[in-house]
Amino acid sequence: MAKVSMSVDLDASADAVWATVGDFAALERWHPAVSRSETDGTGVGAVRDLHLAGGGLLRERLENLDAAGRSLRYTILEGPLPVRDYVSTLRVSGGDGHSTVHWSSEFAPAGASEAEAVTVIEGIYAAGFDKLKTIFGT
User: Fold this and answer.
1) Residues 35-76: pLDDT tens digits?
2) Residues with Cβ within 8 Å of residue 25, at least 6 apart in sequence
3) Alpha-carbon distance 40 to 8, whole Å?
4) pLDDT band at 138 (very low <50, low <70, confident <90, very high)
């Protein structure tokens, strides 16, 4: 299994950042690759369809949500990414004036080498972090 783990520091409270990234139904608010999302259900077990800006559809399921700990875990059910058995955790730590967003995953490559799959996932995380830096500052 391949692993990716990245983080970004932001000049914003952890609660403010979590209010944005912790909303499983609104990834388009902070990730430029998503043009819109539709969510079926609420809470753990909810499934979101992410319509990608370049075309394509990514379907994901919320597996765990810990609002008090500012953490969520989700899996990819289907989509165009070169991965399978993808499990990811998104977590926000910090306090009032500073926070860190941690994004990690474990997956098997599918239709690509491990290095290529890791590069794709790292690019997705970096694009989301760049948008968060625009929204909240660094």
Assistant:
1) 999 999 999 999 999 999 989 999 999 999 999 999 999 999
2) 37, 39, 42, 46, 48
3) 29
4) confident
- Residue by residue, DSSP assigns 10-29 as ESS-HHHHHHHHT-TT-GGG
First to last CA, the chain: 32
Give yes or no for residue 95 having a pLDDT over 90. no
Higher per-residue confidence, 46 vs 95: 46
CB-CB contact of 136 with 12 (8 Å): yes
**What is the amino acid identity at position 49?**
D
Q: How far apart, in Å, are the Cα atoms of 123 and each of 26, 47, 97, 118, 120?
A: 20, 23, 27, 9, 5
- What are the DSSP E strand ranges found in 11-46? 34-40
Length of the chain: 138
Strand 83-94 and strand 71-78: the pairing is: antiparallel
Residue 50 neighbours by CB distance under 10 Å: 22
Q: How many helices (H) and strands (E) does the chain have?
A: 2, 7
CA nearest to 61, candidates 79, 74, 52: 74
CA separation for the pair 3, 32 (Å, rounded): 23
